[in-house]
Write a structure and sequence with these properties.
The structure holds 3 protein chains of 3 kinds.
Chain A lengths: L3 E10 L3 E11 L4 E5 L6 H9 L6 E6 L2 E2 L10 E4 L11 H5 L1 H5 L4 H14 L15 H13 L5 E5 L7 H18 L2 E6 L2 H7 L2 E6 L2 E6 L1 H6 L4 H6 L3 E11 L4 E6 L2 E5 L9 E7 L4 E4 L20 E10 L3 E8 L3 E8 L11 E5 L5 E5 L5 H5 L3
Parallel strand pairs in A: 3-8, 3-9, 6-7, 7-8
Antiparallel strand pairs in A: 1-2, 1-4, 4-5, 9-10, 11-12, 11-14, 12-13, 14-20, 15-19, 16-17, 16-19, 17-18
Chain B lengths: L2 H9 L2 H24 L1 H7 L1 H9 L1 H38 L5 H13 L2 H12 L16 H27 L2 H9 L4 H9 L4 H17 L2 H10 L8 H8 L8 H27 L9 H8 L2 H23 L13 H35 L4 H15 L2 H16 L5 H27 L3 H8 L4 H30 L2 H7 L6 H10 L3 H33 L1
Chain C lengths: L3 E10 L2 E11 L4 E5 L6 H9 L6 E6 L2 E2 L10 E4 L11 H11 L4 H14 L15 H14 L4 E5 L7 H18 L2 E6 L2 H7 L2 E6 L2 E6 L1 H6 L4 H6 L4 E10 L5 E5 L4 E4 L9 E6 L4 E17 L3 E8 L4 E7 L10 E6 L5 E4 L5 H4 L4
Parallel strand pairs in C: 3-8, 3-9, 6-7, 7-8
Antiparallel strand pairs in C: 1-2, 1-4, 4-5, 9-10, 11-12, 11-14, 12-13, 14-19, 15-16, 15-18, 16-17
The chains are: A alpha+beta, B mainly alpha, C alpha+beta.
Chain lengths: 380, 543, 361
């Protein structure tokens, strides 16, 4: 299975749309990598350049260090699993799965053995002779996966493979998808705009925005140490505050986010007086009920939370199943959201006075982006 | 290594793909586009002859009048088609009712009838003022009115088809959304759907206009039966009446062909820009009026009227010729068989050529939308469609005689001519079909290891097969019914069925002409049924 | 008096019932989500209420008035489409003005209304742009402004967010709720996303196969679902099959699982030996020194916690959560866990079998 390297890829479409603007990325041998980014970030273009469906204007695609720009699509052994599955409408499930072996002229015996094992693996044994139009979304997705796996490819490119499915089914199938692909040991790149999906399936996540990769790392890496304010709010919601860096040490830094309100965050290499942005995940933002007994984030731990940075009034509490979202109105800052375990649902009511705090090492500090915070945080 | 393997291998080479595509485009330009408009250059080559005609005010007034009749006729007919075709298209797309399939088939029938047959049938139905002793309504109509009634028949289906095509692509949710906002259906359609219609209107307009402008056979028969053929002309009949086997083209023919071609091409440009800029005022609304027109009797009346018009102006006049079965004429079987064979041979060869050299162009156009070269190509495909076939015939004959020093036999020239006006039909049809096919089918096939040719042959072709067949039949019937181009190219040297029928009518042998027509219709009808069967089976499988 | 009332409403196409015998009452100002898998009839239901379709059986009442035969343009029910359906031939302001205009309101009044709602969805600065110039989320906001400015007090949202990016979806759902609550509008919001349904609605109507399967507030639906399907569809849960095996002194139900282990669960009146399914959510599974043994097969980082998947000795997959402040266990480790008995629900085992009962397609 090859290691894939993208080197400074550039691709501009008519109308001046830069789908790739100096794209660099290495996908390790046998890795399951998620390419995560908003619509229009250039995710699909990146996939298409890897398998050869789109030619980059400049830059190189390397498989195990070898430039593949001269290799035709049919010989790259990179299979695309597209959003709508593209099951061939003129063939039944079996015909689709054996497409690649037949094209490559395998013996009938081998073809049959391979196809049968793939079809069994994706649990489509009962639907072998159905045509694509008769299959449900999930079945189509499984058939397309079997077809891709039967193709003797070394690289699997998945272009939003779950987008067309219902939310609940998506959650079930993403677990299944990852385990099947991993079993085959393929190098896989999975494109998605869905953070939860990326977190759940990826070995590593690459965040793409405006045709560039802006951070690569394991899900917990990126979640805990986002490289930009955008990523902080894109992979997991964050409360984002702008303010002025006022000081700090090797343990934490301090930022004044409103007159008189100083919050703590991870240490940062900044000068006092610099404009700064602080981002805290909603799940790490704790609203302690004023006057209530000690309310620590986790009772297994000693007290880890500093005293509240600022106070506010609960405006709304939303029950979301295993979690609740508490929205607190804070004078001078607007709404601050927190996500807590739903066991604490009864503790908050609209009007409850709370004091907001977080562990300093769970808050990130960034320099103020050049184009301003609003532009940086734009999700679309 | 088999041939297929070899093609597969070669198809991986992008240079080879470019070379093949270049060849196909070259064929399109040099065999189809340039010969179609070559006649324009003859204005200068034969300047003396042309200027003599130009200075002869008697001849010129006849020519101008013929051109005026042609364009006036096409214009009136197209407007009629738009007004009556719109409600019909609505019925076909947005309504579900019993017998919709039958109506759908009936709608296409006039396209399968050779226009010469239609000419005879229509004249019999509406009745001719003199010279025709057949049962009919005996209305006293001017030749112009009679030609309008005739031309409606074979343009109307084109209009309904193109309007339906565009209506199918307009989100029905727009109308529903407007209605949830409080608009009555009538208001919703007027302010939302109609303004979105323009693109479809252009296609429909051009198709109908061009079809009417080109028509020769039926018009000739009508004028002959009215007894005005020696002094009342349309552009195409003027050419047909002046064609002799002695010369390829007289200066008169060159002049009128050039005028027709230039005007037609100008029209293509003007119609496009006028219709796309035309603003429908959606500012004012009349809620009460809208409400009244949307409920109760008004919509029923509108639909009934649309169906009534379809039957009264299109279907009954077309089928009226079958009344002749009560008093069958005798047919010269030998002659009918030989002319039919010629017609089939011409149509078959032309269609085969169209498919081999048209499908690649169609796929290229469909898959490279937005490319400037494709934009030009796409517009060029319309050229042979809009050029009146008779003028096209004149042009083609001149071109090939100049290019090959008269070496090509008349039959080959006729085939080349038929290729020119059927090619756009096939390319248009297949372009539409390919655009409907998600390109990710072929792309996925290639990432699974298929060579580009395999992706085409194993995936795309089977998926669009039914559209290719449907396009082929459309082109085939169009070729079968064509009179003008054949006459303009070969005079009476190549005897096709329509020319045979026109000849019979000219000799006053109406019963024989009718009988020959009925047999021809029967053949076409069987073919249409086969196609319907094929396309419908394919359709349900792909759904 | 309820705002909307459905009495025995059915929508039949040939032999197929898209919606079958539905009775439903919606209060004024209520935010209801109609939740269910594809093809459960949820969109048909709101199409019938808005008048796009006329039900084949049953009556629809709005404000106590029978509107079953009233054409949709007179029902005054706003509708927001999944594919947005902004009029492409009009700019955003004209789109938002459309409702007042076709009702022949004075132009100044129409413009004022349109601007008011465009500003409410923060799109006033884009009112001169055409729909195609906006991103998906922005288009949907304009579509909502358009529906609101026609003056409707009832709005149907037909999967309004499903065409959008996941992250945009999350922001917009809170925004929609804020706006309609501010205006006191009655909403029926169709979705297949249980997370979306949980986070915005006052009440959830869970549909399956054309009928209302279960209904209740989000907290009811999560804590006390009335069926295995509801427990499975709303939020994540562990389902284990077993048999009732007596009661404890305090009345807890004892359930014997596959492999012989017995767990305690909520109080029920099921008889001894009845085949049952127990449902316990991951956050109610705790590791302990004694209990059900399980092997860890997967550990996934979920942001604020680790989701640990195990194969228990009962043969079932059991998932539980570990706080992100702790070090997660490793794949291959062996753990033992217990269930929070008051949060462990017992359902009669469905006759059609568990797999069929929770089938999503």
């Amino acid at each position: 299975m090859p290691e894939i390297t993208l080197e400074n890829l550039r691709k501009e479409f008519s109308g001046g749309i830069k789908a790739s603007d100096g794209l660099d990325l290495t996908v390790r041998d046998g890795e399951y990598l998620c390419l995560l980014g908003p619509t229009g970030a250039g995710k699909t273009t990146a996939l298409r350049m890897i398998c050869g469906l789109t030619k980059p204007d400049s830059g190189r695609v390397l498989f195990d260090g070898k430039d593949v720009s001269g290799v035709p699509i049919s010989e790259r052994r990179t299979t695309m699993l597209s959003q709508r599955y593209a099951l061939f409408p003129n063939m039944d499930v079996y015909g689709n799965v054996v497409f690649s072996p037949v094209i490559k002229g395998w013996s009938e015996e081998d073809t049959k053995v391979l196809a049968t094992s793939m079809i069994d693996m994706v649990h489509m044994g009962k639907k072998v002779h159905s045509i694509p139009g008769e299959l449900s979304g999930g079945q189509q997705q499984r058939t397309a996966l079997a077809r891709a796996l039967a193709s003797d490819s070394k690289v699997l490119l998945l272009d939003e493979p779950l987008r067309a499915l219902d939310a609940r089914l998506r959650i079930e199938l993403r677990k299944e998808l990852k385990s099947m692909v991993k079993e085959m040991g393929l190098t896989s790149i999975h494109v998605t705009h869905d953070q939860d999906e990326a977190m759940e399936v990826a070995d590593r996540i690459a965040i793409i925005r405006k045709g560039r990769i802006i951070q690569v790392g394991t899900p917990s890496d990126i979640f805990q140490n986002p490289a930009t304010p955008f990523i902080a709010n894109f992979l997991g919601r964050s409360n984002v505050f702008s303010g002025t860096y006022v000081g700090g040490d090797s343990d934490h830094s301090e930022v004044e986010i409103a007159p008189g309100i100083v919050v703590k965050a991870r240490p940062a290499d900044m000068e006092a007086g610099e404009k700064a942005v602080v981002a805290v995940k909603v799940g790490a933002t704790v609203p302690e009920v004023v006057g209530a007994k000690e309310d620590v984030q986790d009772r297994h731990l000693p007290k880890v939370l500093p005293d509240g940075y600022f106070g506010g009034t609960v405006e709304r509490v939303m029950y979301e199943g295993s979690t609740i979202t508490v929205e607190t109105r804070v004078e001078g800052l607007g709404i601050v959201s927190s996500q807590r375990s739903s066991r604490r649902y009864e503790a908050y009511k609209p009007g409850t006075q709370v004091s907001i705090t977080w562990q300093p090492q769970k808050a990130s500090v960034f320099r103020m982006p050049e184009n301003g915070l609003e532009d940086e945080m734009r999700l679309e | 290594m088999s041939l297929l393997d070899r093609i597969n291998r070669i198809s991986d080479n992008s240079g080879a793909r470019k070379a093949w595509f270049g060849l196909v485009v070259a064929i399109f330009i040099f065999i189809i586009v340039i010969p179609s408009v070559y006649v324009i250059t003859q204005i200068f080559a034969d300047w003396d002859g042309v200027s003599a005609v130009f200075n002869d005010s008697g001849k010129m007034s006849v020519i101008w009048r013929a051109v005026a009749v042609s364009f006036g006729l096409a214009f009136v007919v197209t407007i009629f088609d738009i007004i009556t075709g719109l409600p019909m298209a609505w019925i076909m797309v947005r309504k579900n009712f019993k017998g919709k399939n039958v109506l759908d088939t009936l709608l296409d029938m006039p396209l399968a009838f050779p226009t010469a047959v239609l000419g005879l049938s229509v004249l019999m139905f509406w009745g001719a003022p003199e010279g025709v002793d057949i049962p009919g309504l005996g209305l006293h109509l001017s030749p112009f009115m009679m030609l309008i009634l005739l031309h409606i028949i074979f343009t109307y289906p084109y209009m309904v088809r193109s309007l339906s095509g565009i209506l199918e692509q307009i989100e029905p949710n727009y109308e529903t959304a407007a209605m949830t906002l409080g608009a009555s259906r009538w208001t919703a359609v007027r302010t939302i759907t109609l303004p979105l219609f323009r693109a479809g209107l252009v296609t429909g307009f051009i198709l109908c206009f061009a079809r009417s402008l080109s028509e020769t056979g039926g018009t000739q028969i009508a004028l002959k039966m009215l007894g005005v053929n020696s002094f009342y002309f349309t552009g195409p009949t003027y050419i047909a009446e002046h064609k002799t086997s002695a010369v390829i083209a007289t200066p008169e023919m060159i002049l009128i062909s050039t005028i027709l071609i230039i005007f037609a091409l100008l029209l293509l440009v003007v119609a496009r820009s006028i219709i796309t800029r035309m603003g429908v005022s959606t500012e004012k609304v009349w809620p009460e009026l809208g409400r009244r027109l949307s409920h109760g009797a008004a919509p029923v009346a509108k639909d009934s009227l649309a169906v009534l018009i379809l039957f009264l102006f299109v279907l009954i006049p077309s089928f009226y010729i079958f009344t002749y079965l009560t008093d069958p004429g005798s047919v010269d079987t030998g002659k009918l068989i030989s002319t039919t064979a010629t017609s089939f041979f011409i149509a078959g060869t032309a269609v085969a050529f169209d498919i081999v050299f048209g499908v690649p162009v169609a796929i290229y156009i469909a898959r490279h939308r937005g490319d400037r070269l494709v934009h030009i190509l796409d517009n060029l495909v319309n050229v042979p469609l809009i050029v009146p076939t008779t003028a096209l015939g004149v042009s083609l004959a001149l071109f090939w005689s100049a290019a090959t020093a008269d070496a090509l036999p008349a039959l080959v020239l006729v085939i080349l001519g038929h290729i020119s006006f059927t090619y756009p039909l096939i390319v248009r049809n297949i372009t539409g079909a390919v655009e409907e096919v998600d390109p990710s089918y072929e792309e996925t096939a290639m990432t699974l290891g298929a060579k580009p040719f395999q992706a085409f042959y194993k995936i795309l072709l089977p998926v669009i097969k039914t559209s290719v067949i449907a396009g082929a039949i459309l082109a085939f019937t169009r070729s079968l019914g064509e009179t003008g181009a054949t006459q303009a190219i070969a005079g009476s040297n190549v005897d096709t069925v329509p020319i045979y029928i026109v000849g019979l009518v000219k000799n006053g042998q109406y019963p024989e002409a009718a009988m020959a027509s009925i047999i021809l219709i029967a053949i076409c009808f069987v073919m249409m049924l086969i196609v319907r069967r094929l396309t419908h089976r394919g359709g349900s499988r792909n759904a | 008096m309820s705002k909307i009332r459905l009495e025995h409403v059915s929508m039949r196409f040939g032999d197929f019932y898209a919606v079958k015998d539905i009775n439903l009452e919606v209060e004024e100002g209520e935010y209801i989500t109609v939740l269910g898998p594809s093809g459960c009839g949820k969109t048909s239901l709101i199409r019938v209420i808005s008048g796009i379709w006329t039900p084949t059986e049953g009556r629809v009442y709005i404000d106590g008035r029978d509107v079953t035969g009233v054409p949709l343009e007179d029902r005054d029910v706003g509708y927001v489409f999944q594919n947005i359906a902004l009029f492409p031939n009009m700019n955003n302001l004209k789109n938002a003005e459309y409702g007042p205009r076709v009702r022949a309101r004075p132009p100044e009044e129409g413009e004022e209304t349109a601007k008011k709602y465009l500003s409410l969805v923060n799109m006033l600065d884009r009112s001169g742009m055409f729909p195609f110039e906006l991103s998906g989320g922005e288009q949907q906001k304009v579509a909502i402004a358009r529906a609101l400015s026609s003056g409707s007090k009832i709005i149907m949202l037909d999967e309004p967010l499903s065409a959008l990016d996941a992250r945009v979806r999350m922001e917009l759902r809170y925004e929609i709720r804020r706006i309609v609550k501010e205006l006191g509008i009655t909403v029926l919001h169709v979705t297949h996303d249980q997370e979306e349904a949980m986070s915005v609605s006052d009440r959830i109507v869970l549909m399956k196969a054309g009928t209302v399967h279960d209904t209740g507030t989000p907290i009811d639906m999560y804590r006390n679902p009335q069926s295995v399907f509801a427990a499975y569809f709303i939020g994540e849960t562990n389902l284990l099959e077993g048999y009732v095996d007596g009661r404890t002194k305090n009345g807890w139900t004892k359930v014997r699982l596959r492999g012989g282990k017995t767990v305690k669960a909520e109080k029920t009146d099921l008889a001894n030996g009845d085949p049952v399914v127990i449902s316990v959510r991951p956050e109610n599974v705790y590791t302990a020194d004694d209990g059900i043994r399980a092997d860890i097969v997967n550990v996934v980082y979920m942001g604020t916690y680790w989701r640990v998947r195990t194969v228990a000795e009962t043969g079932d997959y059991v998932d539980y959560n570990v706080s992100d402040n702790l070090t997660p266990p490793k794949i291959g480790d062996r753990v033992t866990f217990v269930f929070n008995k008051s949060m462990t629900q017992v359902f009669e085992r469905p006759k059609e079998g568990l797999t069929e009962a929770i089938s999503l397609e």
